[in-house]
Amino acid sequence: MSVSITPKPGILEIALYQGGESALPGFVAPLKLSSNENPFGPPPSAVSAMAEAATMAHRYPSTDHKGLRQALSEIHGLDPERIICGVGSDEIITLLCQAYAGPGDEVLYPEHGFGMYRISALAAGATPVTAPEKDRVVDPEAILSAVTERTRLIFIANPANPTGTMLPLSVFEDLAARLPEQCLLVMDGAYVEYAEGYDGGAKLVETRDNVVMTRTFSKVYGLGGVRVGYGYAPREVVEVLTRIRGPFNLSTMALMGAEAALRDTEWVERALRVNADERARLTGGLRQLGVACDDSAANFVLARFSDEAEADAADAHLKKRGIIVRAPKSYGLPHCLRITVGRPQDNDAVLGVLREFRGQR
Q: Closest Cα to residue 326, out of 109, 37, 15, 41?
């Protein structure tokens, strides 16, 4: 290729997103606890809906996603006119950067923030900027101190990934009120369902013109492989994003599977109950082994070891026993391992192997 044909500035600065590992040499079916997936998979009702959708694969899907938006309105009390659906919440993040940030602009997020914030900012030609956290918790004052006249978007996940820590909604209310008028505050709610009594910022979206909420079906609904998410935003923002999203960005299978999963509230509640119980048990078990971890409001626990070398050794020992977790080095946490909360037997296995690891050392 001619050297004169080059991509836009920022593209070549992007390090490819690294998802959680899913395979281990020597293991046909390793225990995968690296991607914060629902260990019970999707609800059977969603599987049936997707199978039915497959019979209509020759037909184009809905362009307005009306059925899913109406279901979100009924289940979560959201205004359907404020909803935009995407290929996971990742696409909503990308669309926001594409629409509101570009060369000369800045996209701000916490130092341990989700990797897609940086990727999407660079892809739009904008400059990614990070603000320090306090003991793995987002610091709103540090966020405000990092805001400049060039800041256009601020992404904050709550509960946060990969730390699992969480801020009260009042912090976001105060933050939104103190931002300059050119900034959009984006509340990434990928793990909202796991935080009891928290609406992810939906009511704040309805009372402010500078707040956007993103959500996903990849976690508690067990549809990570189908790729469905949505944004909840002021109608003006939804109109802008709709202008640039692909008209057929979601397949009929994705739309029908997501709607069925959403309406299967009994299945979702069961998954949440098990996660809450097992998260507490996993957290307590790690602490008993002398492995520090913060209280998590998500479906994973961030285990902190004495240093990077010990974390690497623990990771290697887990893999030796057929267990895959996530080493979040790219998130600035080299001494940690992020462990998805699995089924009771999965968590038993993790604790047993780490007990063995501790004993050997």
A: 37
| Tens of pLDDT, residues 201-247 | 999 999 999 999 999 999 999 999 999 999 999 999 999 999 999 99
For the chain, the three-class secondary structure string (H helix, E strand, C coil) is: CCCCCCCCCCHHHCCCCCCCCCCECCECCCEECCCCCCCCCCCHHHHHHHHHHHCCCCCCCCCCCHHHHHHHHHHHCCCHHHEEEECHHHHHHHHHHHHHCCCCCEEEEECCCCHHHHHHHHHCCCEEEEECCECCECCHHHHHHHCCCCEEEEEEECCCCCCCCCCCHHHHHHHHHHCCCCCEEEEECCCHHHCCCCCCCHHHHHHCCCEEEEEECCCCCCCCCCCCEEEECCHHHHHHHHHHCCCCCCCHHHHHHHHHHHHCHHHHHHHHHHHHHHHHHHHHHHHHCCCEECCCCCCEEEEECCCHHHHHHHHHHHHHCCEECECCHHHCCCCEEEEECCCHHHHHHHHHHHHHHHHHC
Alpha-carbon torsion angle 113, 72, 55, 250, nearest 10: -40
How far is Cα 113 from Cα 131, in angstroms, rounded to an integer?
Answer: 9
Say which residue the tokens 């997103």 belong to. Answer: 17
Dihedral angle over CA of 99, 114, 231, 201, nearest 10:
-120
Domains and CATH numbers, the chain: 18-41+266-360 (3.90.1150.10), 44-263 (3.40.640.10)
Q: Taken in order 268, 273, 276, 279, is the CA torsion positive or negative?
A: negative
Residue pointed to by tokens 């501790």:
358
What residue ranges of the chain have pLDDT lower than 50?
A: 1
What pTM does this model have?
0.93
